[in-house]
Amino acid sequence: MKAFALSPIAATLIAASYLPVSYAQEAEQNKATDEPETEQILILGTRRPGRSVVQSNVPVDLIDEDTLNAGGFNDISRQLQNVVPSFNFYQPSLVDGTEHIKPASLRGLAPDQTLVLLNGRRFHTSALLNLNGTSGRGSVSVDLNAIPSAAIKRIEILRDGAAAQYGSDAIAGVINIITKDAAEGGSVTVSAGSYFTELDGVPELTGILTDEQGNIVPNENGANRVTGIYGDDINRNDGENINFTANTGLALGDDGYINITGEIANANRTNRGGYDDGDTYPLTADGNFDQRELTVNRDRFNFGSPDTESYTLLANAGYYLNSKAELYSTLTFQDKESVTGAFFREAADEGLFIQDIYPNGFTPQILAEIQDWSVLAGVKGSSEHWDYNASVVTGSNEVDYTTYNTANPTYLSQTPTQFYGGQLANQQTTFSFDASRFIDIDGLFSPLSFALGAEYRIDEFEISSGDEAAYTNIQAIDENGNPVVDETGNPVYQSDRLFAQGALYFSDAARVDEDRDSYAFYIDLDADITQQWNITLAGRYEDYSDFGSTSNGKLATRYMFSDTFSVRGSVSTGFRAPSLQQQFYTSVSTNFINGVAYEVGTISSTSTAAQALGGSQLDAEESTNVSLGFTWSPIERLTITADAYRIDIDDRVVLSETLGDSDDEAAIVTQVFNANNIEGVGAVRFFINGVNSRTEGVDVVANYTIDDIAEGSLNLSMGANYNETEVSEVIATAGPADLFAPESLFARRERSRLENAAPKTKANITANWQGEKVSLLLRGNYFGEVTQPGSTQTGDVTVDTAFIVDTEVGYFITEDLQLKLGVNNLFDKYPQSAVITDAPDVGQFDYVIPYPNFSPYGFQGRYAYGKLTYSF
């Protein structure tokens, strides 16, 4: 602990002493209310009724709906990215399923190490497992954007380990989304916007260089590329979108309410790639480029945000049975279609080329149809001594894949051009019971808050296979109609490309239908030892049907040195149960080697093949969290908080490297499989409890409000986060004789992805002025440096620091009708493009994929929007 406690806290104390009159996270949240911040009552982080934000023993952000809606984004993930410095939202492209449900994370940890609650109850995760080379690889996240932002009353973010209080996943913290519960009134909002941007460092292709004979000149950096003639940077106006939301509150008789929010959203795709200078057609007989290369469409890669269309509903209801009991329920539903492109398939590649269907090559299109729903129902109230809350919530996320504008080359010209790829489905059902009361104990300043509870949860995960034609092969037939075999008698297939191109699909071998259950008990104590000193204790026991049981505890305390200054800290243990996706996800493609079929891909850690290489039932991740900080209000309306933290995680669940994809490893894998009588399995990867890690950081947040300035009020707010994660130990081994060294199971690239999931430094600065009719917003987001790992260290890409500026002006046309106009990324900031980085040896994909997916602020450029809201 020495390495943790002194230096970060000393740094935050010094920094706080020099803070200008500025800002705070636990704060921008409060600008819309006349109540002082000390009256902002929270639910998260304590089960003691009436606890306020500044009285919390751990850092909690309280973000209201006005703060979320300030700016041009309509989705929760990007709204939180703008106002919570320790929150990161990744926006990659050309990464298959991850484009459709993008992951978000807290404090630089994995997306599945943050627990998400809806109205205080666990919200289900998505069915999608992030497998591509992005931040959060190997994790399963909650689709926050399945909840309409217009339905939110406030969001509470607990930035502290809380597994002992709330269960699995709460290692980095907890996000609790509270929805509106008004029985009257509402609003209707129409917003629209588009990107108006210049692709920094990506020049426009204005022509193709030819010699004196009219022949196309090959690119000196690649014989399969033409020599382009380039002009100024590309300008694009795309990503047009329109969003319609409506919210209304209705009375249910005299004793209840129902609050309903609906949203319809449509967004066109964006393209942040340049022009493709690769060859399109086969070379002519004399070895020259085909003259059609001069006129073919070269804007053919889809690198950007997908086309999306979604319909989202949330209904929140309550009914008072009497003065002491309330029935409540929350329903959510979203139906979304999202279309993104795969890599362009060149007509010059004869192994892919289907002459009669795609004479100019083709770009496969991947359609994800996503349905997400949940139903929460419960009863809460009070008896003579106890408050209670009993509920059941069930939620589901289903993703169906269809790939069109594609082909399976083994079918030659008879190939279908559209394939259903199959379905991922995840469902979670949770039964919960909580009870709390106050107990008078001699010697305590106030009664002891005592809470206890129980939980039972069922998790289910299923993979359904797709069209057989997407992953099957056809044996070649000779001129006499006989199947073709090689000289050893093994079949010869019509193509060595044996699956639908660019497709997301699941074969029969990938089918999964698994479930598990768990139960938990917890106890929670909150005591004011004196008027100045508070202590909370929590303990939790959980038992899972797959990996067993775990026990965790937490101690948090706060001491008030004065009415304006308090010191707080906590220490806790935590855990995260491995998801069913990590345990059983199977995505197998078939490769034929010497006529023998081999399965290659991601397999279950408990499969026969994985166990032969050291795979086993995954165990829970275990964490130890320590934090220390202070809250300070040196003058009226100025609040400053600082919290340093260290999070040690043992047995982190990570995806192994692919074993058997090199000659040396292939020989070892074959030897092991032969010894265990395993046939038809080639190179594989699977999840392992592979590494230990340490995350250290500091959060500083502040807020200052000035009344009566220019006939309005001004709120200045700031939040800053410093965060660093490192792999402290690689603990994985493979095989009974440790056939693979730990560094080959979790190599440099995977290590770098884990350590560079988020920028080390991130900050949000906001000035929000509200007059009688006019409002003005100016926000800056600072993102520190990030490194995107390549397959070798020389291929690493550094994303430099950036400062992104947003601005917005609002005007009340009438008392109930407000118009807002604004611009996100006002100065059109981009990460450095690969065209510049790799100059003068610019590769083909430097043009078409110029920006790194690890960019913490994305690579979409300037966005202008308008928003009209009618309130009633």
UniProtKB/TrEMBL annotation:
PANTHER family: PTHR47234, SECRETIN_TONB SHORT N-TERMINAL DOMAIN-CONTAINING PROTEIN. GO terms for cellular component: cell outer membrane. Gene3D superfamilies: TonB-dependent receptor, beta-barrel domain, TonB-dependent receptor, plug domain. The keyword Transferase does not apply. It is found in: Cell outer membrane. It is a multi-pass membrane protein. Residues 56-174 form the TonB-dependent receptor plug domain. It comes from Salinimonas sediminis. Its main location: membrane. Belongs to the TonB-dependent receptor family. Coiled coil: none annotated. Residues 1-26 form the signal peptide. This is TonB-dependent receptor.
